[in-house]
């Protein structure tokens, strides 16, 4: 059982930056594509970004492209979401998720239902 623990959420003002981290409990972390999803109040959970096993491939929702950056450190079993130029509409609970894939698999890993493990979420609030 893989455990994912997010951290780094908080309250910021519009235009500020925030960095989220997700730590995985398993050494098999490097066999998983990793994604970030978010759920705003009253809305369904949506895809934000994903990164392939090796970190060489990244995918972004149009709403965050150019502002958010996903990265991973397989040696430390962590994935990071750097969020810049935050907007009030970025307010949501952000979830880290792991999707175990075969070597050579390609993304964009959009489907929430295809992920195997989820973290508990971390709240991001952006004030205007």
Blueprint of the fold:
Blueprint: E1 4-7, E2 10-13, E3 18-24, E4 32-39, E5 46-51, E6 58-60, E7 68-73, E8 78-83, E9 92-100, E10 117-118, E11 122-127
Parallel strand pairs: 2-11
Antiparallel strand pairs: 1-3, 3-8, 4-5, 4-9, 5-6, 7-8, 9-10, 9-11
Structure report:
It contains no helices and eleven strands. It has 128 residues and is mainly beta. The strands form two sheets. Strands 2, 4, 5, 6, 9, 10 and 11 form a seven-stranded mixed β-sheet that branches. The protein has a four-stranded antiparallel β-sheet with strand order 1-3-8-7, with no helix packed on it. The chain starts with a strand and ends with a strand. The model has no long low-confidence stretch (mean pLDDT 95).
**Helix content class:** under 10%
Mean pLDDT: 95
Element-by-element helix/strand order: EEEEEEEEEEE
Q: Could you name the ranges where pLDDT drops below 50 across 5 or more consecutive residues?
A: none
**What structural category do the secondary elements indicate?**
mainly beta
Helix run count: 0
Largest sheet: 7 strands, mixed
Radius of gyration, Cα only, in angstroms?
A: 14 Å
> Strand tally, please?
11
What general form does the structure show? globular
Distance between the terminal alpha carbons, to the nearest Å? Answer: 40 Å
Hey, roughly how much beta strand do the residues contain?
over 45%
Q: What descriptive keywords fit this protein?
A:
single chain, mainly beta, 128 residues, 11 strands, seven-stranded mixed β-sheet
Q: Would you summarize the structure shown here?
A:
With 128 residues, the chain is an all-beta fold. It has no helices and eleven strands.
